[in-house]
Amino acid sequence: MGIKQRDFVRRIQFAQSYVSEVFSGVKTTPGPRFINAVCREFNVNPEWLAGGKEPVFTVPGLPLPPERAAVMAKYLLLSDENRRIIDTIMDGLLFKAMSDEKDEAAGSKPKSGKRKK
After folding, report:
1. CA torsion angle for 47, 9, 62, 83 (degrees, to 10)?
2. Predicted confidence (pLDDT) per residue in 43-60, tens digit
């Protein structure tokens, strides 16, 4: 998932030793409290965690196709600072798309990706 084990431990609020046993395979069947913590904190599908059934990620209460749920789950794993960067990029893309739609509705097309004045 691209996260350090200590950060993983902190986020799910489990003992480092327990998580190390799970990751190393010493503990082959983690308890339901561990499974629930991982699923809750990282938006992992419990069916995938238990048996490999796709999709890997889910966003509870938000019915999305698997590929969109995966994008949303990954976004939720980002730090607040990185989320703000993504939000700014998305705002810019949405503004451009809305401007392009407005130009098309008015009968003109933007030239080389720029809005017509």
Report:
1. -140
2. 888 888 888 888 887 777
